[in-house]
Amino acid sequence: MSRPNHVRLLHVLLISQIALGTAGTVWAQGGPPGGMPPTPVEVAKPTREAVVEAASAVGSLRANEAVVLRAELPGRIESIHFEEGSRVNKGDLLFTLDASLTKAEVAEWEATVAQSQREMDRANDLVAKKLAAQNDLDAKRSLLAIDQARLGSARTRLAKSQIRAPFSGMVGLRQVSVGEYIQSADELVSLVQVDPLKVDFRVPESLAARVAAGLEVEVGLDAYPGEVFTGKVYAVDPQVDVQTRSVMLRATLANREGRLRPGQFANVRVELARRADSLTIPEQALWPQGGKQYVYVIEAGKAALQEVRIGKRSAGRVEVLSGLSADADVIIAGQLKIGPGSPVVPLNLRVAKP
């Protein structure tokens, strides 16, 4: 035998020996002669928990009631009865205007009415005695009515010289001083009611059918980082804003301590729905295909692909609305190495904690 043929024969024998050794090793490790070993996967069982659907928005706080007090009649400010920035109650006297001329006018018309009343009584007696015509009595009655109306008008002007709080709240910074002469409609001071407060915010028109009075809201403010103030929606604008394609909602917030102020910027979270006993799984268990969502579950030691309908996603978890039983063994890691029908072995088996 020539030397080249002898070398070629040695190479063939060496390759055959290596192949036989490798096959023996696979057989010794337990690998079935007809298939691959089970693929290790991580498994979790679904959990039941409360799921809240919410929408986030930005808004602003506004006073429950707010008004700028103005004088209805011109006059000189005689006295001011409040401290700026203080609380006042409905009906409290805030300003008094000089009313000396109006008081004199009231006194004059009171005397005129008294005289007209006496003249009418005298005419009534004369008519009763057939000493005066009925027309004379009617004229006296008309004159008395006119004088009484003028007296009432004078008394109204006198009452308007005292400016009172139309509702309870906090007065702002006054714009006038004692002794100043003001015209009608001049701005005097603002009055706002800050407990409760209102919060106005908008949601997209796609949520218009899901918002209604009574929904709970959580409000966060930059002035109080980490704090949450709660309230409820009490009104929904019946119109959609054609410019922003959004719907305005208005909620109320308690403000008994007076910490919140009208005009503050607010981050609002409105609760749209709450499901107390929803099935949830880790989000990494989802296996999307063709616009649909699937999960792998273990059935008789093999991977099975099941279509599911999902709902709310939150903090790495997803709600399963249908397609999955509560006792399923859901594969949450290792999906890339398997397919439907692949033999699998769980590395763990735990309840998927929320």
UniProtKB/TrEMBL annotation:
Every Multidrug resistance protein MdtA-like barrel-sandwich hybrid domain range: 67-190
Keywords of this entry: Signal
InterPro entries noted in UniProt: Beta-barrel_RND_2, MdtA-like_BSH, RND_pump_MFP, YknX-like_C
Occurrences of domain YknX-like C-terminal permuted SH3-like (ranges): 279-344
Position of the signal peptide: 1-28
Molecular functions (GO terms): efflux transmembrane transporter activity
Pfam families for the chain: Beta-barrel_RND_2, BSH_RND, YknX_C
Keyword Transit peptide: no
Any single GO CC term annotated in Swiss-Prot or TrEMBL for this entry: efflux pump complex
Domain CusB-like beta-barrel: 199-271
Top-level taxon of origin: Bacteria
Coiled coil: none
NCBIfam families: RND_mfp
Protein family (similarity comment): Belongs to the membrane fusion protein (MFP) (TC 8.A.1) family.
PANTHER family reported for this sequence: BLL4320 PROTEIN, MULTIDRUG RESISTANCE PROTEIN MDTA
UniProt protein name: Efflux transporter periplasmic adaptor subunit
